[in-house]
Structure formats: structure tokens, C-alpha cells
Amino acid sequence: MVNLSYIIFICMVISFGLMLPLMEKKTRSVVIFMIVGIFCCLFVSELNQILLNAFHDDMYYVTTTITPVTEEIVKALPILYFAIVISDDRRTLIANSFSVGVGFALLENMVILVQNVENVSILWALVRGFGSGLVHGLCTVMVGYGISYIKKRRKLFFCGTFALLSGAIIYHATYNLLVQSQYPYTGVLLPVITYIPALLLLRSNTAKQTAKG
Q: For the whole model, what pTM was predicted?
């Protein structure tokens, strides 16, 4: 049987792709980066499977040690490219970064859903939606938001990029550890309580930037 990841990927990408010609430029950019995030998830899923086999199917070790590294690096690459080559506008980077994370989470959640369809529930959907969706989005925004600062400071670019990626990886690994602990709902609370102050901070900074402009 064909890998279900590819079937879901094709269905999602075609649907989003058909929307693009009907959208305005800013909205189109968000959807394009969601598609990029979906592609990143497909690529990483294959890479993670190879690594899982290499570590003798030790799921706990791989998901808490290896996958946060592979996933955050792959998700960050299109954002770094966009910031360096196209634009380092902070508002655009934030929107595109979160779109990559959401696209990644969409495919990841759909694949997990079809693989465990007999065990899922409304509660599962809420947990995955808030947990996975926010973690992937926040980690990628961390990189996008930070790169808008350090791109203009060449002496800090390489060490700053490494620090941003390290922060995203540690945050993601912490989430994975918590959701597989004896108290999994603490893992879900982590991105929720992070999202609210982050949203307020970003809105405040955006308002200040608009006022100056």
C-alpha cells in the first residue's frame, strides 16, 4: 500500500494550491508557506523514519532527542532563505514562520490520526490542535522573529542563528518530554501559556512599528 503520508500530502497540497490564484499577494504568501510547511513535514517524516530504524525503533529516545533537531532545522530553512534573499520585514516573517509551523502540524496530525483512528477522540483533537499546532508554530516564529534582528548585525548572524535554532530545539524537546511523561497535559499547557504572552508582545511591537511608520 502507498504510504498514507503521500496520499494526505497530495490531497492537502492540491486543495491549497487551487486557492492561490484567487488570493491577494499577502494572503497568498501565507498559504504558500503553509504548503512549504506541509512539504517540510513530509520530508522530515521520511528522515525521522530512517533515524528511528537506526536507533532500533526506540521511539522515546528519538522523539525526545532526535526529532526536535531535525524538525526545527528543516522548518527554519525556508524562513532563513526568505529573510536573507527576499525580505526581512518582521511582520511578514512572523506570519510566514507561523504558517510553516501550522502547515507542518496539519500534515503531522493527519498522519497520526489515520494511523490511530480507532483511538482518537474530540479530546485528542483538542490536545493535538493546541499542543502540536502551537509548538510547531511558536518554534518557527522564534527563528523568524529573531532573524529579523540579527540579519542586520553580521557579526552576530551565525552565532545568533545557532542560538535561535537551539532555543527552538530545546523548547520542542521539552514539549515532547512532557507529553510523554506521567503528566502529559503539562506538555499541552506549555505552548498555551507561551502563546498568550508571545501574542501580546508581537501585537505590541507591531503596533509600535506601525506608529513609527
A: 0.91
